[in-house]
Amino acid sequence: MIEINNLTKIYKLSSNQMKKLKTKNSTKVAVDKVSFSAEAGEILGLLGPNGAGKTTTLRCIATLLKPTEGSITVQGHDTVSEPEAVRSSIGFLTNEIKLDPQFSAKYLFHFFGRLHKVPEDVLEERRKELFTYFGIDGFEDKKIEELSTGMKQKAAIAVSLVHDPDIVIFDEPTSGLDIITARSVTDYLLELKKKGKLVIISTHIMSEAEKLCDRLVVIIDGKKTAEGTLENIYEATGTNNLEDAFFELYKENHKEER
Ligand SMILES: Nc1ncnc2c1ncn2[C@@H]1O[C@H](COP(=O)(O)OP(=O)(O)OP(=O)(O)O)[C@@H](O)[C@H]1O
Ligand SMILES: [Mg+2]
Q1: Does the structural domain 2-253 have CATH classification 3.40.50.2300?
Q2: Domain ranges in the chain?
Q3: Is the distance from the beta carbon of residue 70 to the nearest atom of ligand 1 less than 6 Å?
Q4: Which atom of ligand 1 lies closest to the CA of 204?
Q5: Ligand 1 atom at minimum distance from 172 CA
């Protein structure tokens, strides 16, 4: 289980960043007092437009960023005071962390498996299972840099699952993938849910959120603007599909011009 209480993350901007953003503010509130929780056996979607704060929230859960304010617990462990315990129970995937291009998928799988202290026989068995599922068999000894975009992403997913984590956190897992490859990823997330894992994904693809997620947390400009099942969100916005619901929430909650 994950519990997020009043998470706020404020970035300090460099003078270059301030120039780029044409702002006089030296800070940026990326996530603003966001609270939600998620349970084993569900797929929770963080839905929001570009810059909403999705990646920042997921990085805070994954212990890669410290909250400015608020707190997060993962299976009862605080992400700031017990980061190792948190990391051992989560598999994290984000576009910003790439597998080292010089090494093969097989080598990296074993490398990260040993870091997580997975016994050798279990490790090889798990590798075969994941590589077969994702069609990495036959490519396992090729350097990451020689693989296609889809194959790289699938290798990154397999590596993130090396320790069979109870909680899987994937930041835009189907970004840049064709529909066949994307489908193998979303089908696998449903398998993980069936096994009783907690899955959290971020997405701005409405159809993906509709098909995959048991519950959604909608974030706009760093603020939580809606939360619940699809039905809850349709009801709250007087709509019957997520795209319309999202536009309603966006109109209500986004005052500045884009
Ligand atoms: N390291 C950083 N320093 C300063 N500002 C940042 C930093 N990382 C993100 N931001 C800003 O914080 C806000 C939230 O960014 P974040 O990457 O969390 O959004 P996101 O919802 O993941 O967006 P996207 O859909 O584009 O991936 C944005 O305005 C972004 O420009
Ligand atoms: Mg992002």
Answers
A1: no
A2: 2-253
A3: no
A4: 25
A5: 27
Spatial distance between the Cα atoms of 117 and 166, rounded to a whole number of angstroms:
16
How many angstroms is it from 236 CA to the middle of ligand 1? 27
| Ligand number with the minimum distance to the CA of 94 | 2
What confidence tens digit (pLDDT) does each residue in 175-234 have? 889 999 999 999 999 999 999 999 999 999 999 999 999 999 999 999 999 999 999 999
- 105-138 pLDDT per residue, tens: 999 999 999 999 999 999 999 999 999 999 999 9
For residue 226, which phi and psi values (nearest 5 degrees)?
Answer: -165, 155
Q: Is 28 close to ligand 1, i.e. is its CB under 6 Å away? A: yes
Q: What is the residue type of 4?
A: I
